[in-house]
Specification:
The chain is mainly beta. It has four helices and 18 strands. β9 and β10 form a beta hairpin. α1 crosses α3.
């Protein structure tokens, strides 16, 4: 698919008036022309709809497991805003927010980089991405077919919404691959240790490298070794590299996948080798906040982590680490998403293949340009 075809696909359905890229481009180029929006007025919505955009995740009628976090993401913009996308907030509700039976499930982030939308619709739309993560705790009270209301807020026109439907499946306590009762139904666990939420990272770094790292593990036991594994292990983590003399044990994780800004559609992260691609032993078994020698961020040299140690000695080597060059990220706010895929807990697909259960964690961080000479953090 070429770039123009992709942009045509992106725009289709974004708004009632947005039927082809050829008609959208000229409209946005003329400030006197306002596109009719596809978002509906919320309780405080004012004036005609000028909000265009779409919900990309979850897909309509998508199945979702109530014991896992749910990612809600997409893009949107106010076509009458000058110089920016015109949105300052996003919320996800279990129904219309003016109904007493509804509740807010999550607040999210707007203004995320969407180079693809900017290329298709004009530079005003470049920072039009939005995202929110609905925690599993908020989904526990819901079941079956559920309509999610995604509300966008504008400074002068109030809130506007679109809906998407999910089919919530309650599988808490059961491993769908083996039928065994799960002792830890919310696993796998994934933690982002670096950066912490709100961290400022300068583009200037020693060796042009900044390492994202954390831990990932699944505490559930193996009941069928034919389809469940401890993880890839680390055959290279011997005395010469890691100083432990034995192979690192698996932590019940088959891989981690990292994205910046807009999973599962990549933002400006396509240049990073591991981003958007499941990374197994290449980024697992990293050294994260070790409890003995005190060194940090040394992929391939596993030592017991003070983070994972509380889960038991079998999870001593459950770290992951992925380095990037922050100079390749645009200055400004970004969101890191890390998804851990279990090799222990999961389900069987139509081909009778094991599909690991996933958990996603996220943090926001701010990239400072090269004008900031002090290396942070």
């Amino acid at each position: 698919m070429n770039g123009r075809s992709y942009r045509l696909k992106l725009v289709t359905g974004a708004a009632a008036a947005c039927v082809a890229l050829s008609s959208i481009g000229p409209s946005l180029a003329q400030p006197t022309t306002t596109l009719q929006g596809s978002w509906l007025a919320g309780p405080d919505g004012q004036g005609p709809s000028t909000i265009i955009g779409r919900i990309e995740a979850p897909r309509n009628n998508q199945k979702a497991v109530s014991s896992s976090n749910l990612l809600v993401s997409g893009w949107a913009a106010d076509t009458t805003a000058a110089g920016w996308a015109g949105l300052d907030g996003v919320e996800v509700w279990s129904g219309a927010k003016d109904k007493t039976t509804s509740s807010k499930l999550a607040s999210g982030i707007v203004g995320l980089a969407r180079a693809d939308v900017g290329d298709a619709l004009g530079s005003t739309f470049t920072s039009s991405g939005f995202t929110a993560i609905v925690p599993s705790s908020a989904l526990q009270s819901l079941s079956g077919a559920t309509t999610l209301y995604v509300y966008l807020h504008t400074p002068g026109k109030g809130s506007w919404y679109r809906t998407t439907s999910v089919s919530l499946v309650s599988t808490a306590g059961v491993n769908l691959a083996t039928g065994a009762t799960l002792q830890f139904p919310t696993d796998p666990i994934v933690v982002i240790a670096r950066p912490q939420d709100g961290t400022a990272i300068t583009q200037k770094q020693v060796n042009n490298k900044f390492s994202f790292n954390g831990i990932a593990l699944d505490r559930n036991t193996i009941t069928d070794p034919n389809i469940q594994l401890t993880g890839p292990g680390c055959s290279g983590c011997n005395g010469a590299r890691g100083g432990i003399g034995t192979q690192a044990r698996g932590a019940g994780i088959s891989s981690v996948t990292a994205y910046i800004d807009t999973p599962p559609v990549k933002g400006d992260n396509s240049i990073f080798g591991n981003f958007g691609t499941p990374c197994g032993s290449a980024c697992l078994y990293a050294n994260v906040l070790v409890s003995n020698l005190g060194s940090l961020n040394v992929p391939g040299r596993p030592r017991a982590s003070i983070i994972s140690g509380s889960y038991g000695s079998q999870f001593d080597f459950s770290g992951w680490s992925i380095p990037i060059n922050p100079a390749l990220l645009a200055p400004g706010p970004h969101t890191l998403y890390v998804t851990a895929t279990s090799s222990v807990t999961g389900s069987l697909n139509a081909a009778n293949q094991f599909v690991g259960k996933t958990t996603t964690a996220s943090v926001t961080f701010n990239v400072l340009d090269l004008g900031h000479k002090k290396i942070q953090p």
